[in-house]
Amino acid sequence: MFTIDSRSRVPIYEQLMKKLQELIIRDVMKEDEQLPSVRALAQQLTINPNTIQKAYRELEREGYIYSIPGKGSFVSPVKNKIDKERMEMLRKELERIVGEILYLGVPKDEVIKLIETMEEPERGESGND
Amino acid sequence: MFTIDSRSRVPIYEQLMKKLQELIIRDVMKEDEQLPSVRALAQQLTINPNTIQKAYRELEREGYIYSIPGKGSFVSPVKNKIDKERMEMLRKELERIVGEILYLGVPKDEVIKLIETMEEPERGESGND
DNA sequence: TAACTGTATTATTTATATTAATACAGTTAG
DNA sequence: CTAACTGTATTAATATAAATAATACAGTTA
């Protein structure tokens, strides 16, 4: 299904997450499609099942997939939930950053101006290590 | 000069940095005023001189102080430089966060609206661990 | 029941961050 | 130039945290 670089400084489970997120976001894996089982994937990639499980657990926590004990793990149908959670996180980060900037005495208008100059990004970019 | 909590989970050198930043930002320590020497402060606080030095090194990197080998360490006169560097860092973070948010399809106006609702913070807050 | 599925707990290993020991080099007063 | 101060660089030891692995448990299905 994909390849893993065990020599990379990037943790295996993160590499896994990234690739799976990619597949899900790009709709290569459709809603409710079953993911390979933790053991199957572990065997295929020759890594410990727990590492797969960690990736799956994180992906579930972030709303990308859902798992049913005994049945399997599947692509989450509600993409909006992903956005919801992610947005919540990003909003907090945004507030923190902007808070710090404002603390430095930069007027709010300046911050807004900065954002206004930013371009709406193109979709579909990967960027691996 | 100040106290350190060696039982805290916050590293000693960070505690030190925070307190010194506080003194500098609040102008308790004036421009070009000499800081206690690494050894003097180390002795006073009963901690290793290298820990002090690490704090000083970081503070210098961030523009809060400057050090002259053989002479001592002093409060940096150009406060703007602090803001400059810090702003540069924050700006990058801001762009990253906003970039991610825009990537989720949130329109720019929404982001701006979010910022507009934020309050200009009060000055002078510490917040220790 | 057998062979699959995910999960939880704990231990082990590895990486990173923090602190310390020590030696070096510049500055200045006498 | 020496003595006593200053900051700095290198390296080692220690502490903390992160990543991975071993193992046992529990649900599902044919």
From TrEMBL, chains A, B:
User: What organism is the protein native to?
Assistant: Domibacillus enclensis
- Keyword Transcription regulation belongs to the record: yes
Q: Which PROSITE patterns match?
A: HTH_GNTR
Pfam families documented for this protein: GntR
Read off the SUPFAM superfamilies from this record.
Winged helix' DNA-binding domain
List GO molecular-function terms, semicolon-separated: DNA binding; DNA-binding transcription factor activity
Q: What are the boundaries of the signal sequence?
A: none
**Gene3D superfamilies under this entry?**
Winged helix-like DNA-binding domain superfamily/Winged helix DNA-binding domain
Ranges for the HTH gntR-type domain? 10-78
Q: What is this protein called?
A: GntR family transcriptional regulator
Keyword entries, A-Z: DNA-binding, Transcription, Transcription regulation
InterPro entries, A to Z: Tscrpt_reg_HTH_GntR, WH-like_DNA-bd_sf, WH_DNA-bd_sf
Tree of life domain: Bacteria
